[in-house]
Design goal:
five-stranded mixed sheet, Arc Repressor Mutant, subunit A, four-stranded antiparallel sheet, alpha+beta, single chain, 301 residues, Jelly Rolls
C-alpha cells in the first residue's frame, strides 16, 4: 500500500530533495542537478501543498501524475496546484538543463493572483498534456525565472514580494500563450478527439446511462477519451468555440427536439431519460439553447 507524504513547506521540499536550505520561506527556484535526491520509495506518494512548475529536459525515467505515466525524454513544462498527489514509479536521473519553482499559496494570498491563478486551466491537466516549448520559449521563461531567483537571493525589502508575484504572473501568462499555440499546432490531432467526443456522446445518450447515472460530468468525459476533463474542454473550446458543457447541452437539446416532435411522452419523462433529476433544469437548458421552452417547441408543430 502506498504511503502518502504531506509536504507543507518549502523547507520540507528541500529536505525531500536533499538540497541546501531555502533562502526564502515561501518560494524556491531549484536548478536541477546531480546532487538532487530523486531515489524515492516506489510506494511513496507525495501530497504537495505548494504550487509547482517544472521544466523537464532530457530526463531519463518515468513520472506518475494523476492517472497517467509520462516519459520525460523531451522538454516539457508541468504544472501542479496544492493538493495534487504525485509519485515516482521508475528510477530517474536528474535533468541538468531543467528547473523547478515551488511557491506557497501564502506568497500570493495578498494579491489578485490568489484569485486569478484559478483561471489557468493547465494546473488541472494530466502530465501527458504537458506544455512542450521551443528553445525561444524556453529562453523567455528562463529570463523570468532568473528575475525571480535574483529577488529571492537579494536582501528582502518592501518591494520584494510584489516583484516576485508579478514575475510569477508573467510566467503563467506566457505559459497560457504557449498552450494556446500548442492547441493550434495540433489541429489535426485535436479534430480526431472532437470526432471521438461526438461519438462518445452519441453512444452515451443512446444507452440507459443517462437514466442510471445522469448527465456525464467533465471528469467522466475526460476519462472516456483518456485525458483530463479540463484539457478536453479547453481542446473543444479552441477547436469549435464551444466548451465541453456547451457540447453536451447542444447534444441533449437535439435529442430532446426529436423526442418532443416524434412522441407523446411527457416533458418530465423526456427530461428524466436524458439524465435530469429536475425537469426545470432541463427546460432551462432547452430554452437557453433553442430560444423557446420545450412545451412551446412541441406546440409549434
Amino acid at each position: 500500500m502506498s504511503n502518502i507524504l504531506d509536504i507543507k513547506s518549502i523547507s520540507e521540499i528541500h529536505r525531500l530533495l536533499d538540497i541546501d536550505k531555502p533562502v526564502h520561506p515561501l518560494i524556491s527556484v531549484v536548478k536541477h542537478s546531480k546532487a538532487m535526491n530523486l531515489d524515492f520509495d516506489k510506494n511513496l506518494r507525495v501530497n504537495n501543498h505548494m504550487y509547482f512548475i517544472s521544466l523537464k529536459e532530457n530526463i531519463q525515467g518515468v513520472f506518475k501524475y494523476g492517472r497517467t505515466s509520462y516519459d520525460f525524454q523531451e522538454g516539457s513544462l508541468v504544472f501542479m496546484r496544492p493538493g495534487q498527489v504525485t509519485s515516482n514509479i521508475d528510477n530517474s536521473e536528474p535533468d541538468l538543463g531543467g528547473w523547478s519553482i515551488f511557491f506557497h499559496p501564502d506568497l500570493i494570498r495578498p494579491y489578485s493572483l490568489a484569485d486569478s491563478i484559478q483561471q489557468y486551466p493547465f494546473f488541472d491537466y494530466d502530465s501527458n498534456e504537458a506544455l512542450h516549448i521551443s528553445e525561444k520559449e524556453k529562453q523567455a521563461l528562463a529570463e523570468i525565472i532568473q528575475k525571480i531567483e535574483s529577488e529571492i537571493h537579494q536582501n528582502i525589502d518592501e518591494h520584494t514580494q510584489e516583484i516576485i508575484v508579478h514575475n510569477i504572473e508573467s510566467l503563467l501568462k506566457y505559459s497560457q500563450r504557449y498552450f494556446d499555440r500548442q492547441f493550434l499546432t495540433r489541429k489535426n490531432h485535436n479534430k480526431d478527439f472532437v470526432t471521438k467526443f461526438e461519438k462518445y456522446l452519441h453512444s452515451y445518450f443512446d444507452s440507459s446511462l443517462p437514466l442510471e447515472k445522469g448527465i456525464p460530468s467533465i471528469k467522466e468525459c475526460g476519462i472516456a477519451l483518456q485525458m483530463s476533463g479540463k484539457y478536453l474542454s479547453d481542446l473543444l473550446k479552441k477547436e469549435t468555440g464551444k466548451s465541453l458543457t456547451e457540447h453536451i447541452h447542444l447534444h441533449i437539446v437535439e435529442i430532446a427536439k426529436n423526442k418532443l416532435l416524434n412522441s407523446n411522452d411527457p416533458i418530465r419523462q423526456i427530461a428524466f431519460r436524458l439524465g435530469f433529476e429536475h425537469p426545470q433544469h432541463f427546460s432551462k437548458i432547452f430554452k437557453s439553447n433553442a430560444g423557446i421552452s420545450p412545451k412551446a417547441y412541441r406546440n409549434l408543430n
